User: Fold these one by one.
Assistant:
Number 1:
Amino acid sequence: MEHVVIVGGGFGGLQVAKRLAKAPVRITLVDRLNHHLFQPLLYQVAMAGLSPSDIAVPIRAALHRQRNVRVILDEAVGVDLARREVELRIAGRLRYDKLVLAAGAGTNYFGHPEWSKWAVGLKDLDEAVEIRRRVLLAFEAAEREPDPEKRKALLRFVVIGGGPTGVELAGSLAELARFALSRDFQTIHPEDAEVTLLEAGPRLLAPFDPKLSASAARQLEELGVTVRTGCLVRQIDDEGVRVAGPDGTETTLRGSTVIWAAGVRARPLSRTLGVELDRGGRVIVGSDGSIPGHPEVFVIGDMAHQVGPDGKPLPGLAPVAIQQGRNVAANILRDIEGKPRVPFRYVDKGMMATIGRSRAVAQTGRLRISGLLAWFAWIVVHLWFLVGFRNRLLVFYNWAYNYLTYKRGARLITGRRLEPGVPRQVVEPSEVERAARERLPPQQQRAPDPVHA
Amino acid sequence: MEHVVIVGGGFGGLQVAKRLAKAPVRITLVDRLNHHLFQPLLYQVAMAGLSPSDIAVPIRAALHRQRNVRVILDEAVGVDLARREVELRIAGRLRYDKLVLAAGAGTNYFGHPEWSKWAVGLKDLDEAVEIRRRVLLAFEAAEREPDPEKRKALLRFVVIGGGPTGVELAGSLAELARFALSRDFQTIHPEDAEVTLLEAGPRLLAPFDPKLSASAARQLEELGVTVRTGCLVRQIDDEGVRVAGPDGTETTLRGSTVIWAAGVRARPLSRTLGVELDRGGRVIVGSDGSIPGHPEVFVIGDMAHQVGPDGKPLPGLAPVAIQQGRNVAANILRDIEGKPRVPFRYVDKGMMATIGRSRAVAQTGRLRISGLLAWFAWIVVHLWFLVGFRNRLLVFYNWAYNYLTYKRGARLITGRRLEPGVPRQVVEPSEVERAARERLPPQQQRAPDPVHA
């Protein structure tokens, strides 16, 4: 029986596994985390609106009815295309007949990995919880601080990157301060928090219609967010964030809590393939999702550079990954049945970004909506997507509760240190990231221990 | 207006603050954590049955309607009884007119602090999440492990301490393996997990009726737990746990995931007072809850050694702390009104311990119950206690859901490292714990910065 190895249990990888439930194949799904994450709501964990368990489900639980899947918690650190083997960090080598790479993307600091110390990215639950901790600790430190200047600096927050994640973070951060925390403190007024959203390009939400970009900026400003476009980040350090404005003048936002939402790049596993990548480290794949010259290896989701009907690469969105996963599963089945493969056709369902509670922008086809209506659309779509998630009811309950009471049940600070600002926990690069940086071929990384020979 | 400083936002401290809501006093509540914890359910977080946010509520949220309280996130590192000042680690000194010490207890390794590296205690959310991570990672590692001997060692769990916490942990660990995880793995049978509960004394649940102790042991054995009484732990290290049995012969439980529930001792803050303590580091207080010679300083909850009607010190239970909190608040009010203080009278509501789902033991007055009936009693009491918690519905929903489906929505592994067994994160002693170990008087710990002068 063919052995299909899937690397990554996100939207794409999980879709492939589920679609092959009745196929005559043996599947091994490898992920370095034990849970599938509903990433579109990750910013709500960072902003203390939802708890980690509301938006994550163990991969084993998601697949436990499917008997042809084996799940392994491990990290894929390299692929040997010639031998058809994936190198796992702990369990050694894994032979495949078909390989699906769906390991997603990490944060891209554009050549400044040292900034990650101050500016946390938002790609997994650990990072979301770390952001939540830093934001809540900043308010706590401000409450303790007698010096008004220092207090002001503690209440200064900078979100870098004006894409959907940055817009969602800035909007919900402003709301957290203005509504959820406003009654909790005696010395400070949390609503005095300064939230700045920095974007390098000329407008927010670049892939959206310019009218919606303008609407998003207006809606953010209604919430008190300072939106600055055309701004380049020059430096991030203990002082704060040094920014060059559109006219080139530099200013420093001092003592800020900084969140990085400026860019992603494919996981460094892609670099171990030795095939053509785009600038974001994504693997360039053909219309059937496979690597040119390697029809047995598919790449999907945020790791893949696949061209859409408009000739441009498809965006890094959950619907793209899910649809690609379906296409790859279909092609694996067609291979078994001896039928020719079918090319991927992306059905664009549109895009949306939420801006706090009751504000959003959305576009689909020729439709452009913003404000409350867009927000309702956003809720309906996200609840629909959560179908299959056991957490649907919990998320709904939490949302409804938050909406009515402005309380945040998820406002916990975990971790032992009490000071914000000073970086407490540097997010270490994983071993595969280090190895990829050092450009070691995967074979040299460790002696192979055979598994699944 | 009198300034009442409360150290600790647990059951006792929160009770004092709430009871003084309408009193003509200014209150400052200091806690090193931002949340009040429903500690009786903490073991369920460690065993992946509930999420941290289900059993914790931010102290600010719990008190935000009360205008005479200021909440400070900081750690009390010393008390200067002569100057009536509390030393805070970050914010400096805080003057009080009345002081209520309610900082609780930490884990007691009985002279072996180095064991904490392997045997995590269960006193806060960080420790509960760390236990959950180690337990779930052990099953994941067993699934990857080809060697049957190593696999067996990975599935060996040891709970040290046969009090209510140890009994609850061992029971729910056995159930996690037998029911919740049983369908999730392909290579291993999680129900083959070996759970051993070690107790130094002659029986489990020493404070309970001997019949209930025997019943608890029987109920645990029905779940597959090996109960060993009269066993002393000699050593814990990378090898495992070395145990001396009742006859003195030593055996080693190899490669185990170890949880420490063997004892508590009062937070080391008590040692900075320079007053009489008992062997557990608890402050010996009079019948009004105050320190002899210092009627302005009260100690309650797990930090206090107060004698009950039977002449024995009161146990470290939530009802004791809550009732003591009420008594102290009443006495603070009576001082203001110029009335004599009232002594504390403990109303014993009984004790209970749950053993997984549908098993428990309970005693109150002359009533002794065990099994399903005791379990129902346990649920009713805990839901009743959760009144006032915003999480009541969530907890109930989660319980009901777990009961019906055996799924565990909280089965997340967070943190970046993938291997169990080898200690990953040594829980660092806090600064106050270090200072107290070195027996520095609090004045020498740091230069004072005046706050609230």
Note: Chain A touches chain B through 60 residues (CB under 8 Å).
Number 2:
Amino acid sequence: MTTTPVRQTSHLLSRRDLDFMLYEWLHVVDLTTRSRFQEHSAETFSAVLDLSEQLAVRKFAPHNREGDLREPVVGSEGRVELIPAVREAIDAYIAAGLQAASFDHAYGGMRLPVTVQKASSLWFTAANASTTGYLFLASAAANLLVAHADADMVDRYARPMIEGRFFGTMCLSEPEAGSSLADITTRAKLQDDGTYRVRGTKMWISAGDHELGENIIHLVLARTGGTGSGIKGISLFAVPKYLVESDGSIGERNDVVLLGLNHKMGNRGTTNTVLGFGDGTHRPRGEAGAVGYLIGAEGNGLACMFHMMNEARIAVGSGAVSLGYTGYLKSLAYAKTRLQGRRAGEQNPSSPRVPIIEHADVRRMLLAQKSYVEGSLALILYCARLVDEQASAPDEAERDRARMLLDVLTPIAKSFPAQWCLAANDLAIQVHGGYGYTRDFDVEQHYRDNRLNQIHEGTHGVQGLDLLGRKVRVNGGRAFRMLIDSMRQTALSARGRDGEPAVLAELLERRIDRLVVTTETLSRSADREAAMANSSVYLEAMGHVVIAWLWLEQVVVAAGKVDDFYNGKRAAARYFFHYELPRTDHQFDLLCRCDRTTLDLDPEWL
Amino acid sequence: MTTTPVRQTSHLLSRRDLDFMLYEWLHVVDLTTRSRFQEHSAETFSAVLDLSEQLAVRKFAPHNREGDLREPVVGSEGRVELIPAVREAIDAYIAAGLQAASFDHAYGGMRLPVTVQKASSLWFTAANASTTGYLFLASAAANLLVAHADADMVDRYARPMIEGRFFGTMCLSEPEAGSSLADITTRAKLQDDGTYRVRGTKMWISAGDHELGENIIHLVLARTGGTGSGIKGISLFAVPKYLVESDGSIGERNDVVLLGLNHKMGNRGTTNTVLGFGDGTHRPRGEAGAVGYLIGAEGNGLACMFHMMNEARIAVGSGAVSLGYTGYLKSLAYAKTRLQGRRAGEQNPSSPRVPIIEHADVRRMLLAQKSYVEGSLALILYCARLVDEQASAPDEAERDRARMLLDVLTPIAKSFPAQWCLAANDLAIQVHGGYGYTRDFDVEQHYRDNRLNQIHEGTHGVQGLDLLGRKVRVNGGRAFRMLIDSMRQTALSARGRDGEPAVLAELLERRIDRLVVTTETLSRSADREAAMANSSVYLEAMGHVVIAWLWLEQVVVAAGKVDDFYNGKRAAARYFFHYELPRTDHQFDLLCRCDRTTLDLDPEWL
């Protein structure tokens, strides 16, 4: 078996489950037959996962609560002070080669499949979401630069981020423009030397200031003025905290200043900042304005930024999964050891007490958590597998299919875990009873940390608009149809097996049919406003169908295999199909009649 | 109109809504025709509500965040130190006569109807749940003593609590016995003088230690040894922190010591303690053991304690309502003023931005909150009205009916607000976006404070067991049938009106029928274990039916009246019936088939 004492006691994730998903279901070893991943093998993958768990347990988990209690402060000379353990953990991660892992050899990486890299990353977010935030923003920023910036910029900014010397941010929101990027007012003015001078204020910038590395590269959306209003006028710039000389050495201070730290409900260890660009505090090269470097073409900023945003959205989902997962394992361990009450029907008050896992309602709360977190994990790893397909599948049709599926699944990969792994954390508190409400146990912090995930990188509502307004419609609904086909294929294969898989397949097919009809109804509706009014409900209903599909996938893989692990998979699938999936029925009813309750309302009535 | 500038800006509760419920729906003024309440009038009720709002705004709300940031600590000589504002607020409350308000004249009270007293109390919990906790525990303890203790004990302990000089607690749980009272081990031994000596450890004791008054009277469940095992062997004792001499003066220190403070996710301003009774720190009257005084008969402790527990359960529900309500009003105010984005379909990016309340999904989140919090408020005030009926209805049949309805509604009055007003707080955070996740806004604290309410005074699961296992069955289901009759009566009256009320009535009747059939199916099931396995689902389904009924009640009252307020009532009812009530359908399906998913499970599979 794959469990070891350390793994059993860490309660961060289940390695057995990760192995199941990676090897038995997603067949990641098959990737090693492709040239991009040919140096890899099941052994290298397992080594990465072993290392990740060990490092997460030893370096990241121990300061998770301390980071919550002692949040970042602005210290002397305006420098942001973090607890020392953050730097130690980050240094160990970088030294282990994990920051570069999925990058090309040219950048010192090892071309690790994104699927395995994602599985690795889950250990760290489960152990300490806040500390991990600094690392993941840097690698996502580097990914964007590698994809969109010219070679000189990649060398100057991306390479040091991959090496772990620089860090990165994404600067989109502004105080008066949160979800509405069309309204950003930060300006960038072209200079004679081809650089830009950037002026404006950015809000909600995670990891926006700290002293963890030599530099911070801000990826900033700003207007150049010449390319129109709304989102069409927006370009993307790299704005380093310190200018970088042509030889790569650190130059003078750029005019990017910390205007304030936000103090949050959770996720407190990651600085969240208000940043001023070009407010005149510093005068790089003797002139006013923060020096910025255009990435891609003028007016194409949002398209470039979406490279990072899509990655970040799936990262939000995976962060939510890991917090949900560790909360589940902790409440499971508690339920197995905490003695309280007697089995239902036991009349003798002096009979021995039983572990609370014997109580039906505690089991319900555990099965619910398991169904949410393992269903979400499947979705996240499936998406990561699509990223690998996109990069390495031998024929274009397969790469195109992967791109399409990833596109339509991204809002769900962001929102389902953010909603339901948070619900899992809520249940983990409840299983702990009064103890779960105290700060002596981890679960209340997991809840607070996880609450962020419905808000950042596009709120829940924004994901609903994206899914129903764009993703299921683009290219005449091609991506949506591909997804439907994939789900039907799974149902078909489950129908071919006797017993429960066939029963679940029928339940899934019924909802796939409803999803298709609902989507067509909304697409054809003459009343576009009413059709879009319940897009969050649509997001949630489709999320449940997708997760049911991925549970059926797991049931098919587990078919014919009998041990505790596979029995657990079947039990959680059963729970999801019988307790969760049916909630979509009234959501589809509501959607199909284009309910106008929210529209036929005067704000003054509230 | 009844609104004034102070009311409009407090964002604690809606006075207009309280007036609607008290006067237009529950007709509290009718109570003044009964001898018990004959000195009262609409004017005295309104004066109490005016005073309550003012006091809550001026004395309780201002230190709500400070109490969260600076939680109680154990200071010099083991004394618990609270921020000074707590004492000031409590003194003002007592000085205003509110602590005694609903008590008899004999205790310095003004016989305020419980319905009005409950409405008054909501202002304070909305403003500061933690500070209010000290007051409410004292009055609930005094209520118990007045009902069950002899005259001397009432004089010695209850009277000073009503006067605001003493405070009180309820001591049920122990470290190894949380929800399972049958397992408590605290012992009480009869002495020659008729007093008892109490020894044991109590856990999760709210307001268990502080210096707010002269004394703290702990109401303690303990075993006397002679009356059997399980819950039958439990008796109730008053155990004062300081002994009280026969002349009422404060005597020596009793052997009740603070063993520790719990540090919680929220509700931080109320001390939550581990208390040691009779551990030998003090030796009152020169002997070992904490001096305790039996309340009621030996072995009858739980029955007495339920007097306080039932009151506390409804208080938990009303606390949850008030936190949900203030969060709703704050997110509503934010949504009306925060500009972001444009109306759906607006193509011109330079058109003016709109308040976010114009977005359908924000309206959905506001209507959901309104439907939860006003529905819950209706339930709490309805229950309070039943308490008044129980005490003052002219004929026994009416008093009996009130007692029955209150009995069956108590688990729902505790659990629906605890679950759904918490969900409202979650939505209030979401409406605020990133700001809602910061500690600069109130809503994240409301969430954390409110999260307690699903745990204490009987967890959510315990309420489900109580409802399905006991409350709907006792006396051959008489209370349940009375409730069903009341609901059908409302539906019938709504059917008599044209248009929407009749439509909603039909939707409600359909679910009443399902509730009845489900309840019968479960009662008759031969597989008792399976019938009880989903009692939490039953609790939630019945909760939604009850709240739908109370929304229909409001719609009937509002029928024919047209202004913003009544239109808002109709909109929220519409939301609840179309978005919320249908979720019961699959819950009833699950219940009727006695789903065994949670039972047919080996814990090792998880």
Note: Residues 1-8 of chain B have pLDDT under 50 and may be disordered.
Number 3:
Amino acid sequence: MYKPRLFAPGPVEVPAQVLSAMARPTVHHRTPEFKEIFLRTREKLADVCCVSGEDVLILAGSGTSAFEAGFLASVPKGTKVLGIDAGKFGERWIKMASTFGYEVIDLKFDWGKVAEPERLRETLKANPDIGVVMTTHSETSTGTLHDVKALAKVVKEENPDALILVDCVTSLGATEIRPNEWRLDGVFSGSQKGLMLPPGLGFAWLSKRAWSQQNLSPSFYLDLRKERKSQTKGETAYTPAVNLIYGLETSLDMHLEEGLDNVWRRRERFNNAIIAGAKAVGCQPYAERPSPAVAALYAPEGISAPDIVKGFTKRGMRIAGGQDHAKPVMFRPSALGYLDDFDVISISVALEASLRDLGHVFEQGAAVVATMKALET
Amino acid sequence: MYKPRLFAPGPVEVPAQVLSAMARPTVHHRTPEFKEIFLRTREKLADVCCVSGEDVLILAGSGTSAFEAGFLASVPKGTKVLGIDAGKFGERWIKMASTFGYEVIDLKFDWGKVAEPERLRETLKANPDIGVVMTTHSETSTGTLHDVKALAKVVKEENPDALILVDCVTSLGATEIRPNEWRLDGVFSGSQKGLMLPPGLGFAWLSKRAWSQQNLSPSFYLDLRKERKSQTKGETAYTPAVNLIYGLETSLDMHLEEGLDNVWRRRERFNNAIIAGAKAVGCQPYAERPSPAVAALYAPEGISAPDIVKGFTKRGMRIAGGQDHAKPVMFRPSALGYLDDFDVISISVALEASLRDLGHVFEQGAAVVATMKALET
């Protein structure tokens, strides 16, 4: 029997109750029925984003559409932008801003390293005309969790007028995000990550300061101001992805029932347990400060990471490989989706089996036992 | 027992087999499994769009996102644009083009009227610098089917270099579209209309001439050229709405099995039967040339159209009302979704019941019998 498992950093294993919620008959989006569902779901989404009572906008699109919409809704034309570039997604936002004609300073950090607040400070000091800082929170390509709270503090200290826009695509639902307490200006995410839905929804929150910006670049489908005007009333500017929104409510209910603190703790516990298991069989973590969203791991010396990924695949378990220059050396299992302790242990079982196939020598059960022990904490 | 029915011009009644296809576990989008599903589905989509073997791109977004993407991928900066404006959606594209800084000539026609090819010809003669013509095919707000074939002929006769971009949002799957034979340059649609899916996917096809344009406005999430490069290989530039794509394949299979000619004939027969029933109880069609996608109908003199819509709603049947100035006088049932003869007759049953509630006098069964007779043809 082939039973596929999707343990990648998005898309992820979707709970059956979410899939069946999505199979409910589509309601028309200009009706009181939809309005009620939509307003209720938006309220729960704001709770899960730790901005209760505020506007988190829901788009039919991916996380990228949400970041782009938020950028276009808050960055005045001609603004000098700084992009923290410590992986593929940091790079993406720099490309995006450049595409729309913005001057962008590319603040590079080695892959796997944390973006150092003090280097950001120096760059801001040297360029007092920087109006916007863009960063990822959980940089999925390197498995790194940037210290967004500390980065935002530096931005506000150096230039209180500057905005900080944060890619929370894989961090939402995986780890603590406090948009207001940390004084962030934009938080963007997508459905197929911590929220455990199929892909197809983008989420965007902006601060008061971000909403107050003017002289913006044009946008139409991704016009967040138009969306905000509609969504506040329980409508949408364009036709929403109704059935995904059914699934979203189910997933949000699951999060709120478990409690956000518990969800975050559980995800961190899972990720640490995956890393502990991997270390026990000679796979070191890639990230200086691991993100609970994904365990980026080095293959043991002399073993090809793509071959490890293939070993997982052969067993019906889908994990991610490395990207770009990290492809030969990195593999990335993730507990971002619908997983429990048994699933996390299964990841170590699959890792052991894949490594043995490749001739790597270790004591059988070493990864599994290390994972089991780590899960007990 | 409350059994809701969604007989609006989108979203529509989704077949249970489509909903259950969507409930299949999400696969990762960077895998051979997805690639196979995606390439196969894209091939079937091209067949249903009558452009077999060509590229129809699939976006995570609405029909509006697809039109915007197609526009930005094919209209050089500074192009003078003509928008045919005979209803809400014609208006939308004019607003969109203006938002992105294009000069737009607004060629107005009264609501319910067909866009006359000869008026288009005059305008093109008077403005030989028009580079792009935008039109709707089925203008949903007025229930009108524009003669896109004739309009395209005029464009190519007057200015062979000009492009014609067509909003086929409600016409795809509802009536004949021949992008190549008619020499169209852009065809755009969405999932929640004739293809009977929940909302969340946009579709875009461009002609060779459209793809060859240069000096374009910037786009990032909606960059169709980037999508084309990926989708040709069975990938996507950004994360695709995987589960909606499962549903799409099921719906395309249903269309191809029935045969496109049969689907179009059936939809026209259904729409004519709705109109025949309505006429028998004093409701005249709004459109000079009705679109098979939706029956736009006048309420009988002295009766409020929103009250008729309410009468349907009370019976669990959701139809659309009129928009803007047509709101007081228009109601719009539609057979765009998953309907059969019984459902079409039920629309007339609901119409009779709603009209009787409002004191309108007619022979009981008149609408129903007229609909039944019309269905026999």
Note: The mean pLDDT of chain A is 97.
